[in-house]
Amino acid sequence: AKLVYDFTEGNKDLKDLLGGKGANLAEMTNLGLPVPPGFTITTEACKVYLDSGEEPAALRDEVSAHLVALEDKMGKKLGQADNPLLVSVRSGAKFSMPGMMDTVLNIGLSDRSVKGLAEQAGDERFAWDSYRRLIQMFGKTVLGVEGDLFEEALEAAKAAKKVTVDTELEAADLKKLVTKFKKIVKTEAGRDFPQDPREQMDLAIKAVFDSWNGDRAKLYRRQERIPHDLGTAVNVCSMVFGNLGPDSGTGVAFTRDPASGHQGVYGDYLQNAQGEDVVAGIRNTVPLAELEQIDKKSYDQLMQIMETLENHYKDLCDIEFTIERGQLWMLQTRVGKRTAGAAFRIATQLVDQGLIDETEALQRVNGAQLAQLMFPRFDEDAKVEKVGRGIAASPGAAVGKAVFDSYTAVKWSRSGEKVILVRRETNPDDLDGMIAAEGILTSRGGKTSHAAVVARGMGKTCVCGAEELEVDTKRRRMTVPGGHVVEEGDIISIDGSSGKVYLGEVPVVPSPVVEYFEGRMHAGANDADELVEAVHRIMAFADRKRRLRVRANADNAEDANRARRFGAQGIGLCRTEHMFLGDRRELVERLILADTDAEREESLKELLPLQKQDFVELFSAMDGLPVTVRLLDPPLHEFLPDITELSVRVALAESRKDPHENELRLLQAVHRLHEQNPMLGLRGVRLGLVIPGLFTMQVRAIAEAAAERKNAKGDPRAEIMIPLVGTVQELEIVREEADQVIAEVEAATGTQLKLAIGTMIELPRAALTAGQIAEAAEFFSFGTNDLTQTVWGFSRDDVEASFFTAYLEKGIFGVSPFETIDKDGVGSLVSAAVKAGRETRPDLKLGVCGEHGGDPESVHFFHEVGLDYVSCSPFRIPVARLEAGRAAT
Ligand code: PEP
Ligand code: MG
Fold first, then answer.
1. Which residue among 763, 785, 822 is best mutated to probe the pocket of ligand 1, counting the most ligand atoms within 8 A of its Cβ?
2. Which residues form the signal peptide (predicted)?
3. Phi, psi at residue 508, to the nearest 5°?
4. Residue 417: pLDDT over 90
5. 114, 165, 382, 632: which has the fewest Cβ within 10 Å?
6. Is the dihedral of CA 786, 790, 794, 797 positive or negative?
């Protein structure tokens, strides 16, 4: 296969092969936009290299052919002494990994061609500055030289000259610096800086390939769930220079505000500088709008291009550009990252502009973003001390102890502390600390600085460029206006939506989106309401599209009411064990300890009206909608006191010769019921089969509650669900008893109840014999928590804290199977059971009530296998509705 594509050969749909950057450079080239010519080496070439340690055999020749074509187009040769072509070598994977991989600029400069460049540009200083940048970047990224060594030499040169910024160094100073840099390379790398331009290029290409497996890149991919086997493409692009004087410069821009979604002029510009200077946030940029004063022609052209790009991509784009002596060049574009709130706003704005339709709008947002918007925010009315304001780079309200380095951030967060990572600016080495922190605060850099871009990607709160704060990382403190000093460990609060920084802990309030779902807020005019309006509209799109119904896991009227406000279409799982706790525990204890039938029946009789009342409340909260009540599931010992505690109490009483008959009896019962593997023991349907009267009491409570609601002109739609069934015989026995009780209640109350009886499918055997089980079940609800536990043999209560980190690190799975359904294993059992169940009973109702019911990716799976509904916790309901809508597009 072809390993190298000219920019004129690719297009935006080839991201797998050309990476995001390469595909979009090609797209812009073909749109006729000013892109410096170049070519892209495919991810396939990278994959071969990473797998075998060697570049594919044909690569060298293909690169040569493309290089010759490029040289012809540019009318100069790579590194040619009198008029050198210079190129950049940049990484570019399918998914953007900001700052995680390598880039080398100015390839082609050497001791000879630096003079040619000086002449060609008419600027000796520029040529030597470009050369020293090449040696520095090449030394660091290709030859592995410690980057600080170059920085220190640069600082020393500035100090010697008593200047503070690099632009004040003159050609002669830079020439000396080049000599110094070459010495550093020689000592540290044990080889000379290569003078052969082609060797420079080939080594740089290899370094970019290698950077795919750098520690930073790997960590980032794990965090972002980017597969490790994609590889990166490499873009070789002819250089244009933003550092050729005041009529040159470089910048980044967004076609709309990535934080609010508003249209306008958003971006940063830096005069007389090269691209990396902006992204790294090293020097202070000016707002893009000021470019209009600096260079009106380029500014107008840029605005025009931005419009072209938005209309072409039909989405927010971000852009990197360079102006070389008044000529504008596009160096990169991509569909830009945005905050969760902006995603919703932009999607509806684009619908209003007629650029996209409702279906497409649903693809522009996702459940994770909606979940993020449901986080609480700071209470604006709280009495707080604001000490600074930076740029609102990534929304959220974060409170924590200030720490000033990544190492401490990680260490403290491991010991359970919430921390805010405070830095002057971040760089890729801070990634660990950023992950560990609740939020990130920097005193320098704009919306496109490293901190901002990475934090937005991680959905982490970030305030950047809070310039009034003097951050002193060496002494681990920062000074705020007025002179107050924040020491390491002092609590601060940062608001990523407003950019405000506060001393101390600011109280938080619910998000406007939650207020909206709760019905306490409606669309209006202010900023928060714009977001609410957008969410409202997108939810309507999703509800119109989705086939899956969404129910709630709820055990009481309060949760049921909230679920209903959030859009639940019923209850998919009411766990009755929650009704056996609290002050009813004593009754349950008596039931478990009963020596005689009479005693047991007595306690069941006392429990009955309590259970019934619970159901009356639940059915009235969910009037008109289905409520699936699951009969008691957990092992009985969960309702008894802790065995160790009780043993101590008994021993103590014994030694004191206190009366302790009851305790002793209890202890004996606890011993009797003790199980080595309670999750695989006496629980679920097994309880119903060995404890006479337990399930029938629950069924009676359900039936009587339904009858009462019916007689009160309500519309109860109860469904009775049997847990942990492994074979149809279990279900048949329970069912027979239940049918009898229901018939009794119907007769006694003169009602027709139509109570459906179904089962959970949460054991492999149940899934494997689903065809038989469906004979006795009117519905299935997949209990994917237990099903995952039993299919994998993973204890659901233990493994996430014990060895899952190791599994995730080793890439055995990218996400816990308890969080996102394991499609290949657990999922294939689910789909087989769906098929077999429906074969037996075509109108079998199918749902899921494990945690996966509220997980975005899993919702898509459940849509695909044809379930009728998902059931999840009340707060996940909007997420499930949205994802069910997205799954149906
Ligand atoms: C399940 O196992 O998926 C389930 C919903 O039941 P529980 O979590 O109560 O065991
Ligand atoms: Mg279960």
1. 785
2. none
3. -110, 155
4. yes
5. 165
6. positive
Q: Which one of 686, 786, 867 would you pick to mutate in the ligand 1 pocket, going by the greatest count of ligand atoms within 8 A of its CB? A: 786
Mean of per-residue pLDDT scores for the chain:
92
- What SS3 class is residue 745? helix
CATH topology of domain 4-238: Dna Ligase; domain 1 (3.30.1490)
The answer on pLDDT for 280 being more than 60 is no
The H or E element spanning position 89 is strand 87-93
- CA nearest ligand 1 atom 4, residue: 783
**pTM of this prediction?**
0.80
575 marked among binding-site residues: yes
d(CA 252, CA 263): 16
State residue 639's pLDDT score. 85
Given the residues 237, 464, 574, 849, select the one marked as catalytic.
849
Residue of 201 and 510 predicted with greater confidence: 201
Q: Would the CB of 785 count as within 6 Å of ligand 1?
A: yes
Q: Is the dihedral of CA 197, 203, 204, 206 positive or negative?
A: positive
Longest alpha-carbon distance in the chain: 106
- DSSP reduced 3-state for 76: coil
CA of 578 to the centre of ligand 2 (A): 14
HEC secondary structure over 705-739? HHHHHHHCCCCCEEEEEECCCCCHHHHHHHHHHHH
CB-ligand 1 contact for 783 (6 Å cutoff): yes
CB of 316 sitting under 6 A from ligand 1: no
575 lines ligand 1 (CB under 6 A): yes
The verdict on the CB of residue 784 being under 6 Å from ligand 1 is yes
DSSP structure class, residue 85: B
Superfamily of domain 249-335: ATP-grasp fold, B domain (3.30.470.20)
What residues does each domain of the chain span? 4-238, 249-335, 340-370+513-537, 377-509, 546-574+615-635+695-887
Is the predicted pLDDT of residue 180 greater than 70, yes or no?
yes
The answer to whether the annotation marks 124 as part of a ligand binding site is no
Binding site annotation covers 762? yes
Residue 857 has a CB neighbour count (10 Å cut-off) of 18
pLDDT digits (tens, 9 = 90+) for 853-871: 999 999 999 999 999 999 9
- Dist. CA 760 → ligand 1 center (Å): 9
Of the candidate CATH numbers 3.30.200.20, 3.90.1150.10, 3.50.30.10, 1.10.10.10, the domain formed by 377-509 belongs to 3.50.30.10
- The percent of residues in the chain predicted with pLDDT above 70, rounded, is 97
Q: Is 38 annotated among the ligand-binding residues? A: no
- The CATH architecture one would assign to domain 546-574+615-635+695-887 is Alpha-Beta Barrel (3.20)
Ligand 1 near 555 CB (within 6 A)? no
pLDDT at 281: 52
Give ipTM to 2 decimals. Answer: 0.99
Res 819: pLDDT: 87
**Structure letter (DSSP) for residue 42:** -
Q: Is 849 a catalytic residue?
A: yes
Whether residue 523 is predicted with pLDDT greater than 70 in this model: the reply is no
Q: What percent of the chain has pLDDT over 90?
A: 72
Between the CA of residue 217 and those of 728, 790, 791, what are the distances in Å? 51, 35, 33
- The pLDDT score that the predictor gives to residue 381 is 78
679 CA to middle of ligand 2, Å? 9
Other beta carbons less than 10 A from residue 524's beta carbon: 10
- What integer pLDDT is reported at residue 877 of this predicted model? 96
